[in-house]
Amino acid sequence: MGAYKYMEELWRHKQSDCIRFLLRVRAWEYRQRPKMVRCARPTRTDKAHRLGYKAKQGYVIVRIGVRRGGRKRQNHRGMVWGKPKHQGINHLKFERNLQSVAEEKVGRKYANLRVLNSYWINQDATMKYYEIIMVDPSHTKIRNDARINWIVNPVHKHRECRGLTSAGRKGRGLRKSGHRANGIKGGSFRAAWMNRNTLKLKRYR
Question: 20 to 30 Å CA-CA from 105: which of 66, 112, 144, 165?
Answer without folding.
Answer: 144
